[in-house]
Structure formats: structure tokens, C-alpha cells
Description:
single chain; alpha+beta; three-stranded antiparallel sheet; 8 helices
Amino acid sequence: MASxxxxxxGTADSGLRAIDPPFVASGPCGVAVRNRLxxxxxxxxxxxxxxxxxxxxxxxxDLKARCxxxxxxxxxxxxxxxxxxxxxxxxxxxxxxxxxxxxxWALARRSQLAHLQSLEEGVRTIERRLSLPVxxxxxxxxxxxxxxxxxxxxxxxxxRVLQNRLASxxxxxxxxxxxxxxxxxxxxxxRHHLDEAxxxxxxxxxxWEAGRWFLHADGESGKRYGNETIRVTLEGEVSIRLxxxxxDLANAPHGRYILSARVRFAHRGTEWxxxxxxxxxxxxxIHLDVPRERWYLTAxxxxxxx
Length: 306
């Protein structure tokens, strides 16, 4: 008796899902390293707080304007917003703020689309299961009907809720309306649930204000040390280009303030030093960890795709 030839798994004749050929995934396209700013004086912290609060108020105003533009946003409106911010800060700070606002709007837009697709999938699934007889068994590829009349009734009510949410989300998406909170929606909601969050009103206020500060500057290749706004030298000296209204706080020429702290990146420090020495773009962000009462400096840059 002749034996039946065995079919290779993953082929068209086997009835199983075909296996794609192996491939090499792309590596990370960016690097971010962080270092604590140790040895800051009281004056240093005061200057950082004033600069962060001033630029944060401008960033909040600009984000509101960007969201109001919606789908009508273009190069002209971007340039108008940047001109309005330049007088209250500087050209580079204005560029960083407008870019951050646009990135926040774009991220909210992508999240909105993902949520919209999730709602559509949920509505389709419930509608299909409601159309099946109660108790009908499903298959490996699709679920069957609901197990009881009670579950069927509960899911029918759930369907109405999802349909209303879907209609609201679709209307916002078509009009380009997004919902963004500087500082984070989670932190904003915690204001009404302080006991559950385990913080006092004063602690929440400190976190809220720090979360809405703006102390982020994109790098520029060809500029000294790769960043003109927040500059870090090879020796670890950190200086900030102050906004115009706060120029009287400068302790160095050209409206700059030099911090007392020195930074040293232990992780990827050699790679960072090579970029700084070659005046290649490095972005910096200064932020305060409120619970720990520590200031940090984060350096980030793009890496070539491999």
C-alpha cells in the first residue's frame, strides 16, 4: 500500500497559513540619553522655572491656535503663529514651540484615527453576533451568537453606546477637531480624584505646572555644539538662550544664562561628544521630576537607518 506524501506546513496545499520569508527589522532611528543636573543653585532653579513657565504659556497659546486651525492649517498660518511668538521669545524658541504644537496635533490626530477604527471594529463585531441566533456556536475564525437572552440584551445596549461614540468621533475627525491637554489628560483628571491619586492639592499643582513648562530645543547642524538655544559644551557646561522678556536674567553675553551644574553622559557619551565636536544637531530637553525634586537634561539625536 502506497503511503500518502506528507505536505509541508505553510504551503498552499497544506491548508495552513503561509509563512512569509524572514527579513531583518529596521533598527531604532533615534537615541535619547539623560543625565541629572547636579549642583544647581537656588538662582539656577528660579531661572529655569521662570523660563519654563513663560515658554509654557506661549506653547499653550500656540497649541490652542493650532487646534483651532484644524484641517485649514498651512504654511501661511504656521508662519503667522511663529511671527507672533518671536516677539515674546526668540526666533528659535518660536520655531521649537510651533513644531511641538504641530507634532502634538498630529499625534492626537493619529490616536483619534486609531480610536475611530477600534470603535468601527467593535460595532461590526457586536452587530454580527447580534444577528446570529442565541447560543449558536462560533468557529475558529469568527465568534458565534451570544450565550443567553440576557447577554444579547446587554450587548444590544452596548451597541447603541458605541454607535453614539462612533458618530461623535467621526464628526470630530471629519472636521479636524482634536482634544489635547498640555500636561496630560491623566494628570488633569487626577485633580478631581486627589485621594485616589495619593497626592495633595499642592503636590498636584506642582506636578501640573511642571508638566506644562516648555524647555525643549531642537538641534541645528552647523551651529556651535549642534544647538544654539540650549547649548552643552564638551566640558559639560549648560547654557540657555533666554527669551527676550527675560533677558535681564542673563549672566553671560548675548542673553545667555549659564547653569552651575555640569553634565556628563555615561551612556553613549562618546557618540554624543563626537556629534557635539562636529557641530551636528542634538536636541535637548530640561525637565523637573517633582516627586524627587530633581532636574534632568535629556539629549536626543537621529541615527542613520541600518
